[in-house]
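Tokens for chain A. Residues wanted.
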């Protein structure tokens, strides 16, 4: 009797874990991407160097990096090397690297 209950509970726990993992993902809508690309193109920034920071989605930028606002978009940006980097200002996590 108790044996079928264990796989069911394990399955629910697995599904709950998947739900938590996807809740942390940031989705940049196509409309936001268009706004960001146009704004970054029209308002170029001087590039900065960040030693020891990988430009990957999810990486965190140091507090010393000044993030620039983009009108009508909740994210900020900075230019690192040859890439504009879209950042969530509260967590300072990279949400998109724009080529």
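Reply:
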């Amino acid at each position: 009797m108790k044996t079928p209950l264990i796989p069911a509970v394990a399955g629910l726990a697995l599904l709950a874990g998947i739900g938590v993992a996807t809740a942390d993902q940031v989705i940049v809508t196509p409309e936001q991407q268009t706004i960001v690309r146009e704004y970054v193109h029209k308002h170029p920034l001087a590039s900065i160097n960040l030693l020891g920071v990988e430009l990957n989605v999810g990486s965190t930028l140091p507090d010393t990096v000044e993030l620039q606002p983009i009108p009508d978009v909740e994210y900020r940006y900075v230019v690192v090397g040859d890439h504009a980097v879209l950042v969530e200002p509260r967590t300072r996590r990279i949400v998109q690297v724009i080529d």
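The radius of gyration is 19 Å. Residues 26-98 form one domain.
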